[in-house]
Amino acid sequence: MMDFSLIPADPKPVIALLSAFSSFSAILLVSWPYLARDTLGDRMRQVGEERERIRLRERSGLSGRKDPLLLRAPPKKFYQAIVDRFNLSEQVGDGEIARMLSRAGYRGRGPVVGFLAARLLTPLAMFVAALAYMLMFLNEATSLLPKIAIGLGAAYFGYYLPIILLKNRTTKRQMSIRRAWPEALDLMLICVESGMSVEGAFRKVSEEIGVQSVELAEEMNLTTAELSYLQDRRKAFENLGLRTDLDGVKAVVTSLIQAERYGTPVGQALRVLAQENRDMRMSEAEKRAAALPPKLTVPMILFFLPVLFAIIITPAIIRVMQAQ
User: Fold this and answer.
1) Cβ atoms 159, 119 nearer than 8 A
2) What is the pLDDT of residues 55-82, one digit of tens each?
3) Residue 205 near residue 188, CB atoms below 8 Å
4) Residues 6+ apart with CB under 8 A from 143
5) How many CB atoms lie within 10 A of CB 230?
6) Spatial CB neighbours of 152, under 8 Å, sequence gap ≥ 6
7) Which of 131-135, 162-166, 199-203, 246-250 shows the lowest per-residue confidence on average (mean pLDDT)?
8) 132 and 198 Cβ atoms separated by less than 8 Å
9) What is the pTM for the complete model shown?
10) Contact present, 181 and 7 (Cβ < 8 Å)
11) Does residue 85 register a pLDDT over 80?
12) At what angle do helices 292-299 and 267-290 cross, to 10 degrees?
């Protein structure tokens, strides 16, 4: 038989408590967009500062100054000492680490040195944290083998933690660029067909697209600087494809390189590529929408059905208790 002793005789306090919780949740949901911090202004300011540093550096180089301004900050002395002490610079190899960092938005020698130092310091920090945890919470009777296994596992996780964080940032950055890239191509098409040069189109688009994607505005701004100062314009386009590592961007880069080499028109290629990128974005959105119902099945079973059963069964239980 069902035990009704645990059910309160007067359900009004429970109903009032649930109503208060629902009201608080609704207020929090409505006010959350106003409480969350918007970093768009900070990122736009960083893009503007980086553009100004590029201009000052090139101006100082042209004027023959002996102390030109640096575009990228030098590495920290502590990280540099660690890299030099353990000779970690050999891991850079053919520049794969620098390319990985550039895809995540980190450029220059400073991030490379910091990443190499982090891959050495993070395992040690995780190992020390694991030892502190075992000394504080584990029983002294625990054998030595599990403690060694926990410490080694923490160190192994710490070695790959910087790579995981870097890949996560790269994925978010690529997603932002991928979403705004079709609109950027449309703006470039308008600029090119109105008679602007490729450098002018990149500069104008970098100023306008920052509202939608600060990452794309930053990449196009750097490409504009490279087109202005590199001797080989093809290298500037290739750098854009390497920094973003997106198929849509690489296709546009190939079209621009061919236009530079053979003099082919850029407008028609940009129009076709913009439509293709827009179709790819729509296809990806449809795939995500199609995968949503299976993902919602388990949360609905765990959280929605018990509440539904409670709402349906509670009035009957209250009536049975009142009848007794």
Assistant:
1) yes
2) 666 556 545 544 444 445 567 787 788 8
3) yes
4) none
5) 14
6) 127
7) 131-135
8) no
9) 0.67
10) no
11) no
12) 30
Residue 48 burial (CB count, 10 A): 14
Read off the pLDDT of residues 91-100 as tens digits, 9 standing for 90 and up: 766 678 888 8
Whole-angstrom Cα distance, residue 277 to residue 31? 35
CA distances from 250 to 158, 241, 257, 262, 277 (A): 34, 5, 10, 18, 12
* Residue 277: how many other CB atoms lie within 10 Å: 24
Residues 6+ apart with CB under 8 A from 117: 78, 79, 82, 83, 88
Rounded CA separation 304/297 (Å): 10
Q: How far apart are alpha carbons 296 and 9 in whole angstroms? A: 36
Q: What does the chain come to in residues?
A: 324
Which amino acid is it at 72? Answer: R
Task: Determine the pLDDT at residue 277.
Answer: 82
